[in-house]
Design goal:
Layout: H1 2-11, E1 43-47, H2 51-61, E2 65-70, H3 78-83, E3 89-90, H4 93-99, E4 106-109, H5 116-125, E5 129-133, H6 140-153, E6 157-160, H7 167-177, E7 184-191, H8 215-219, H9 245-254, H10 256-262, E8 269-276, E9 286-293, E10 302-308, E11 318-319, E12 391-392, E13 396-401, E14 405-409, E15 414-418, H11 420-424, H12 439-447, H13 457-475, E16 480-483, E17 488-489, H14 493-496
Parallel strand pairs: 1-2, 1-4, 2-3, 4-5, 5-6, 7-10
Antiparallel strand pairs: 7-13, 8-9, 8-16, 9-10, 11-12, 13-14, 14-15, 16-17
Helix pairs in contact: 5-6, 6-13, 7-10, 9-13
């Protein structure tokens, strides 16, 4: 019972049967102004309308009303600005929130990482529900701020780490909680090499600002610097002042099953184990960080290793004990083999299939996440080949238990036990967690007074916080001791400078 109670403390909204006894909309925290009944559509404003911002806006549009659009880059957002031609358009989200306040119930936020907290807080302070793309924030301080803001302003929240809604992600937790692999004292998380700049030794060249871009507003809360086409529309992700590299791009996904199943709180120490291509401007080519978490209830202390840009041939790639001849990461959606439907976990039951990305030319470089025509940056050695037996490379995670090993892949979209012979004979445990109606629909339901969403900030802000701590450890060598209560490192003034961002004058944040 203690184990179940502790799970409810961490993930109460996801536990099967967790419906308010008085019905939907009866939870006291969901009675704040702005919650709408199910039969009314939400009026949603989109802040960031190109790329992934446009994707989440269109997911919301499957069932709700899009009433206003905001983007600083007319070129990047051109397709969606044209698609919603009759809705008002803005470049400054603050102006939109003020002018359209009475018309907006909720906002989707799909902008560069460094502006997530700034935009999200402004929405919540005006009583608007928020869906913020992953990663939630760039720094630990911002993650804690958004967690506190969601409580203060009583709005429905969701981080766009869509894998939290996947069947395999939840089954992974149920397998671990069943005791199948025993106590887990070690877990490893991996993210494949990205396509953004790494190991940068000098800042990009200055260039003229395009007429379609408001560079001042793009810079937002960051200290002003000259424009360069090497920052946009996607490569900002690799620069320390703007993005979070593969932590925000992929570890936010691959670490999800680890965070959920192990019920992680805050680490007590974080340490950089290895690094290649260190830079004072950008993410390195690759690195390894170890985070030590204390015991949680009856779960023992656990060391979690994050392997950034791991690929076959890397000396730091994790060799899974006893699995030298095994393929480590499972295929995505592999639970269909055991009779479990996957559902439309990203978009919801009524959504159209996702658009097909153009295929890259045979023999050509990988397409950047920014789309066709976006430059691709690869670390030395490239992205590596396919999976190598016995090694954790690519996007996934491994749980090393006292009774066995479990692995998950991609966004938590695949799960199995190792060796595969054990998995083939394994019967899945009973369902303990509720299942998602689709990641976007999960948030929309919460906006209308239903169950708290699966990536509500009460769950994902602590998750984003320890991921951001891993980036700080990457930048500051030595074992760092973290005091979570006071949000400071007790043994590193240098690391403490990175806990909270520097804000441009006039852009400071407070509740």
């Amino acid at each position: 019972m203690e184990s179940v109670s502790r799970r409810h403390f961490f993930f109460g909204p996801l536990l099967a049967g967790a419906v308010p006894t008085a019905g939907f909309g009866s939870v006291p925290s969901l009675k704040a102004l702005g919650y709408k009944p199910y039969y009314d559509k939400l009026n949603v404003a989109a802040i960031g309308c190109g790329g992934q911002g446009g994707s989440i806006m269109n997911q919301a549009a499957n069932t709700e009303n899009i009433v206003a659009l905001c983007d600083v880059d007319e070129s990047r957002a051109a397709a969606n600005l044209k698609k919603y031609s009759s809705q008002p358009k803005y470049k400054d989200f603050r102006v939109m929130l003020d002018k359209e306040a009475k018309n907006i119930d909720a906002c989707t936020v799909g902008v560069p990482d460094f502006m997530h907290a700034t935009v999200g807080l402004a929405c919540m302070q005006r009583g608007k529900h928020v869906y913020i793309e992953k990663p939630l924030t760039r720094t630990p301080w911002e993650a804690r701020l958004l967690q506190d803001a969601a409580v203060k302003y009583q709005v429905a929240t969701q981080m766009g780490n869509q894998g939290f809604s996947h069947e395999c992600n939840r089954v992974a937790a149920e397998i671990l909680w069943s005791g199948e692999i025993g106590d887990v004292r070690e877990a490893h998380i991996s993210a494949s090499p990205g396509t953004h700049p790494t190991g940068v030794q000098q800042l990009p060249r200055e260039a003229s600002v395009p007429d379609t871009l408001d560079w001042n507003l793009w810079m937002g809360s960051a200290n002003m610097r000259p424009f360069s086409p090497d920052y946009i529309p996607y490569n900002w992700r690799g620069f320390l002042d703007f993005g979070t590299g593969q932590v925000g791009n992929w570890a936010t996904h691959t670490a999800g099953p680890v965070h959920t199943a192990l019920q992680l709180t805050a680490p007590v120490t974080i340490e950089r184990i290895a690094i290649e291509g260190e830079s004072k401007y950008s993410m390195p080519h690759r690195y390894v960080v170890r985070l030590d978490f204390p015991a949680r209830g009856k779960m023992p202390p656990v060391s979690v290793y994050y392997h950034d840009s791991a690929r076959p041939g890397d000396p730091e790639a994790f060799k899974v004990p006893g699995m030298e001849n095994e393929t480590i990461l499972p295929p995505v959606n592999n639970l269909t083999e055991k009779g479990r439907p996957m559902g439309n976990w990203r978009r919801g039951p009524n959504a159209p299939p996702p658009p097909q990305r153009p295929a890259r030319p045979a023999g050509g470089p990988p397409m950047g996440a920014g789309g066709p025509g976006v430059p691709v940056f690869l670390p030395p050695g490239g992205r590596g080949g396919g999976p190598q037996p016995g090694l954790l490379t690519g996007n996934g995670s491994v749980f090393v238990g006292s009774k066995g090993v479990m692995a998950t892949s991609s966004r938590g979209e695949g799960v199995w036990l190792l060796p595969q012979a054990r998995w083939q004979a394994y019967q899945l445990p009973p369902q303990l967690l509720t299942r998602s109606p689709g990641h976007m629909m999960d948030w929309i339901r919460a906006c209308k007074g239903g169950e708290t969403s699966c990536s509500d900030f009460s769950i994902t802000a602590p998750f984003a916080e320890w991921l951001a701590l891993a980036i700080i450890a990457m930048r500051v060598p030595g074992k760092l001791e973290w005091d979570s209560k006071n949000m400071r490192f007790t043994n590193s003034p240098e690391a403490n400078k990175l806990v909270k961002p520097e804000f441009r004058k006039g852009w400071e944040l407070k509740l």
